[in-house]
Amino acid sequence: MYRRPIINITIALILGIIIQYYLRLPIKIIYIISFAHLMLLIIFIYLKQRGKTIIIFLAILFLGALHLEYEYNTEDYIKIFANKKVGIIGVCEQKYISDRSVYILHVSNIKYKGKNYKLNSKILFKIFDYEGKSLNNKKIIVRGRVKIPDKARNPKMFDYNLYLKTQGINATLNTNGYNIKVIDTGDLPLLIKLRHRIKSYVYVEALNILPDDEGKLALSITFGDKRIIEESIYSFFKASGTAHTLAVSGLHFGILFVFIDFILKNLKIKEKYKSLILILLIWVFAFIVGFSPSVIRASSMITLSVSANLIDRRYDLFSALALICLINTIINPFMIFNIGFQLSFLAVISIALFYRPIYERLGILPGLVRKMFAATLSAQIYTLPIIAYHFNIFSPIALIINIPVVLLITIILPLNLIFFILLFININIAKFIAFFDKILIKQLIIVNSISTYFPFASFNVISPSLLFLVTFYIGTIIVLHKHKIPQINKYEIRHVISIFLVIIIIVNSFKFVYSNKLKITFVDVGQGDCILIETPKGKNILIDGGKYKKGFLSKFLLKNHISYIDLICVTHIHDDHIGGVIDVIENINFGSVVIGTKLYSCEEYKELANKCFAENTPIRVLSRGMTIDLEKDLSLTSINPATRVMNDTHDDVNNNSLVCILKYKELEVLLTGDIEKEAEEEIIREVSRQDIDVIKVCHHGSNTSNIPEFIDYFNPEIAVIQVGKNTFGHPHRDTIETLRKKGIEIYRNDTNGAVIIVYDGKKIKIDTMIE
Question: Which residue range or ranges hold the Metallo-beta-lactamase domain (predicted)?
Fold first, then answer.
């Protein structure tokens, strides 16, 4: 515990941040607990009692929680102007060299209602359909509405707000070119302006000399700009598990370190000067590519390692990692949620822990292959679970493909750097180098494309739980270092293990909140319907899927630990209902499929029918009066359409939507599809009256639906409107007024995000993703 105190401090701070992120304890409680620990520590020190380490650990843990909460509560005044028409004055910094429409706007003033407000903030600024000159280092005034980025709108999905916070950005602004006026040259630091000029020149000249795909890939490998690569090429790298080579990371800095070291040694430069030059060049490269978390980590570690050698001090890798992580976390506590940050640190830790044991067991392999295989495998042991957690993909072929890919990158990266430097010196020599660069990059594309010929090169996986991740990482460390455990104070071991167990239980307790309960998630799919029902005994039912968004709905399911859908219900064939179902059947295993009627068809329905035919799964029609008994006390009963469908209505497809009542014990939920007035009136005539608890409001709240008589007939207490941004006027004010007059509690996807209803047989609990 005392040998590497910086590691203990870093772990405590990170745990405090993570716990606070998930639990969001009130800041007053954190202050009280932190103060109590401080007092306890003083008493323990005064009385010379054992256990001071544990008290210090917990005190730092709560300081981490306090640090995160302080950042949450620090008022960024730009939020005051959210969703208001304002004039913003600031200096543009182009975010991507390959895209002149995206900038970080360094805001200095905001004009609102004739008043001028000074502030210091950063906005992610996008210009629609912009093809003009770069606005980099231009001071502008732009008119528009500032938006606060969305938090995750569905459980466990991408949190755009958190992602931008890791970059120090708290707001966004999207506008057109005519709302922008350049008023002066900006005052960006000289080095940032120089970086932009260097990269802009390199991009233009490199793409003039190298063929399209090879040129873009050369730039991506060197600068980490994946945006410029064609999707078809990038898909090869994703499928083969080598996409990490297109983001500047420790791999790139390791190659650069060896390359520079080799040149300096051959130039017979003294060790002292060689070290200083090496550090300088490493940071020059880091500056040019941009200070991403992985770049900061890699360049800092090389600096510490070289500096330790320079002053003849022992270099401790784990302490260096902890120090770099601690500094980053203190500067920005949200940084630990950055995926690049996580993968960068875990890759180094994984190699440090597992390289030697793996290398020793690969004695039958030739030397270079043995080293490459050991390095590749050891790096993936700790990174694969995080990749699965964030991206829901596993690539078995990655272990093999990474070896030739990394070998090629080891040659290509130095060649790229020589090529880019020569662009400023002699174009003809640069073209000569580019000839060899092109050949190697072409081979890189071919090697990665091989993965497309293997049926199981990559496949989808569910996100591992936090409990699994924590247990896996702690467990592997204990197993690897079990021989050292007796040497450590047993008193402290017991306490540390107890702390970890408590943390694991607290952080993961939310996972078990819904056990043995009925859970209904009205998924936020924008302007469309999608409902996920998770039954008490673990079955999964999907009703509609919203519009088709490649990978969206399947990823939502995988992130929520769902890899099998027992029953898919398609209410009708409009694309805002059936579209997302296609994404599900392409990526998720499924059981039965039901629909209200087969009289209508569309491309999506044909695709669904073909998939069901291939899987030998018939699509069943569920007509009025038919019931599916899902499990004990849980059933799904159709009340529309009748066997004889409706014709010549305002919209026959909508009016023949599958309408069901989900019943679990005393809870009844009416799921209405897109039925309109005619279908509602027929249901009133043909279906027995009953009080229900929850209604999925018909047709996104349209005024062609939801007649007062229909609402009265079923007398719901809670209404959920599945609606997103639209031009149809949904939900209509008349519908909202009808629901409000009857005292019905209203939830909406457009304002609340996903709406989650949990029923334990006695009480209904409602949660929303956005308060």
Answer: 527-725
CA atoms of 477 and 67, how far apart (whole Å): 28
Three-class DSSP category at 641: coil
Backbone dihedral angles phi then psi of residue 516, each to the nearest 5 degrees:
60, 30
Would the pTM of this model clear 0.85, i.e. be above it?
A: yes
537 and 678 assigned to the same domain? yes
CA-based nearest residue to 16, from 67, 64, 69: 64
Smallest CA-to-CA distance from 739 within 704, 769, 701 is with: 701
Tell me which residue has tokens 């208001």: 84
Mean pLDDT by runs of 10 across the 771 residues of the chain is 79 91 77 69 64 77 86 74 92 89 93 90 90 89 92 95 90 91 88 92 94 92 91 88 89 92 90 92 94 91 90 88 94 93 92 91 82 87 92 86 90 96 95 95 93 79 87 79 55 57 57 71 98 96 96 97 97 96 96 94 92 93 96 96 92 96 97 97 95 97 96 97 96 97 97 97 95 82
**Range of the structural domain that residue 424 is part of:** 190-241+399-464
Residue indicated by tokens 């790139």? 252
Same-domain pairing of 535 and 668 = yes
- Tell me: cis bond preceding 708? Omega within 30 of 0 counts: no
DSSP structure class, residue 185: E
Would residue 338 count as lying in a domain? no
Asked if 724 contacts 754 with a C-beta cutoff of 8 angstroms, the reply is no
Strands 171-175 and 619-621: unpaired
Where among 464, 489, 509 does a domain terminate?
464
Is the separation of the CB atoms in 534 and 519 below 8 Å? yes
Any idea what the CATH number is for the domain that residue 683 is in? 3.60.15.10
C-alpha triplet 423, 425, 427: angle, nearest 5°:
50
Phi first, then psi: give them for residue 393, nearest 5 degrees. -140, 145
